[in-house]
Design goal:
By secondary structure, this protein is mainly alpha-helical. 73% of the residues lie in helices and 3% in strands. The protein contains 14 helices and four strands. The protein has helices spanning 3-13, 59-91, 96-112, 114-144, 150-179, 184-233, 269-285, 294-323, 328-353, 360-376, 384-402, 405-413, 418-447, 451-483; strands spanning 22-24, 37-41, 43-45, 260-264. The protein has a two-stranded antiparallel sheet with strand order 1-3. The protein is globular.
Length: 484
């Protein structure tokens, strides 16, 4: 085969790259087959001129405050469902299992679809993504107010508002992590403090709205509150790309380079190269190459288990209190205790995570194990004071992993992969959330008490912590091998 033909074929195959991947051919193997030449691409380098410089302060603190306000509204809406949950059961004369799917779809479905929003953030930025998410969420809540059947709530409250909330969560956390490097754990801890602040005021606020405006009016007002977060989204000023920075060596914590085979030959190389180009772009768009990194894969499974377990604690604790004969206004106070304690823990342990030398993945795992163990033992708490004690203890543990949950993905995959890593983490967490509430409701319906649901889901959360410990050991081993 002449060199001119080879050169022509190489010209046509050099397009095997996406907007975010630069293909570097380090060796070419040639084999005579029916389809022509076989090119083996041994290494792929991402263009590091797309990396951003993290100012580690300045306007970043404004971004943190804006993100905190967004998560405050979101956290309040999560707790509001815990109050509305009982109302939906009574109004629509349905089971707890059926009503539980409303909240599971709202939190879980949106997070599952978050795998698409990582690419959306990368393409359009956090500001646009958050604004679009706020509008979609508000639309879902307002539409829910006109529901005449529980299926309508599945669609409007569950799916529509869930998609919007997921867009807001991904964009808010990504922009904060992009603005900070050395102070990233503290910044993220302050940003997610909003969830606790929302939980602190969300329960009593939702109960007040429910008493005064009924459930339909409550949903419309919550939808209007979500529209106010658009103001916060405008504060998400995009960072300027660092055009001069070039990363020469791949971070040992980063995902290994992909390997592609490109087959080219007369008559068929055009279609095949286009298909491989499309396939490569799709895989990279959704960050699926990150799943080849074992510690991150374990971390995703851990997130699934943790979300499945802890969501039951967050959503069913007030319901469990009511089922034990505790008055509803006292049950709403448990949400306040939960929010206040988790918030203080998030900030305090977020500062701890920022201390040099602290292993954030180990902090995440240990906190998850303790939280799961406490939840599994919740059945022993039957009175309001005892339930409050368990809520405080578990909330402290929850704050320990909440404050580093997003930061750990940067430790594992690097800041250059933060958008897609966050989206994949939302996806795995969303799967857990999707089944958690109805799963607990199902266990309640067949046992007629919450002790078994809390025991089972607590053990699942504990398993998530153990998987985090395994991921930590695996990551240490990879670092040791890479340093030799």
């Amino acid at each position: 085969m002449s060199s001119s033909v080879l050169n022509d074929d190489l010209e046509e195959t050099k397009a095997i790259q996406s907007n975010d991947i630069e293909v570097k051919v380090e060796s070419v193997g040639i084999a005579n087959g029916k389809d022509g030449l076989t090119l083996k691409v041994d290494n792929i380098n991402r263009p590091t001129d797309q990396l951003m410089t993290s100012p580690d302060g300045g306007w970043g603190w404004v971004v943190v405050f804006a993100a905190m306000m967004v998560t405050t509204v979101i956290g309040g809406s999560y707790i509001a469902f815990a109050i509305l949950y009982i109302e939906f059961v009574e109004v629509f004369h349905t089971t707890r299992l059926a009503a539980g799917w409303i909240g599971s779809l709202a939190i879980g479905c949106g997070n599952i679809l978050g795998i698409f929003f990582g690419g959306f953030v990368k393409r359009y930025g956090s500001r646009i993504t958050c604004i679009v998410g706020a509008v979609i969420t508000a639309t879902g809540y307002v539409a829910s107010a006109f529901s005449t059947d529980i299926v309508h709530l599945y669609l409007a409250y569950g799916i529509v508002s869930g998609i919007g909330v997921s867009m807001m969560v991904v964009s808010s956390l990504v922009i904060v992590m992009q603005y900070f490097d050395r102070r990233r754990p503290t910044a993220v801890a302050l940003a997610v403090f909003g969830y606790s602040l929302g939980a602190l005021i969300g329960g009593p606020f939702a109960q007040m709205l429910l008493d005064k405006y009924a459930w339909r009016g409550t949903l419309i007002i919550i939808g209007g509150i979500f529209l106010q977060t658009i103001v916060c989204a405008f504060l998400f000023r995009p960072l300027v790309l660092n055009q001069s920075s070039r990363q020469q060596e791949q971070n040992p914590e980063s995902v290994p380079a992909m390997e592609l085979d490109a087959r080219v030959g007369k008559g068929s190389h055009g279609c095949i190269s286009k298909f491989r180009n499309f396939l490569s772009s799709t895989v990279h768009m959704f960050g699926l190459t990150l799943l080849r990194h074992p510690p991150f894969l374990l971390y995703m499974v851990s997130g699934f288990c943790l979300s499945l377990g802890i969501t039951v604690f967050l959503q069913h604790t007030p319901s469990r209190a009511v089922s034990l004969g505790i008055e509803r206004h006292k049950a709403a106070l448990l949400s306040m205790i939960m929010g206040a304690t988790t918030g203080i823990s998030r900030v305090a342990l977020g500062f701890v995570a920022n201390i040099p030398g602290v292993n954030r993945l180990l902090q995440y795992s240990f906190s998850a194990v303790v939280s799961g163990a406490i939840q599994a033992a919740t059945g022993f708490a039957k009175s309001f004071p005892m339930i409050a004690v368990f809520v405080v203890l578990q909330s402290i543990s929850n704050g320990g992993f909440y404050c580093v949950q997003s930061t750990v993905i940067v430790d594992i995959n690097g800041i250059e992969n933060v958008a897609r890593s966050q989206a994949l983490l939302c996806f795995s967490s969303g799967l857990g959330i999707l089944v958690s509430i109805p799963f607990a409701g199902f266990l309640f319906d067949i046992t007629n008490n919450y002790d078994i649901p809390f025991l089972v889901t607590g053990c699942i959360a504990l398993l998530g912590g153990v998987l985090g410990l395994v991921a930590n050991l695996w990551l240490k081993k990879m670092k040791t091998v890479a340093s030799k």
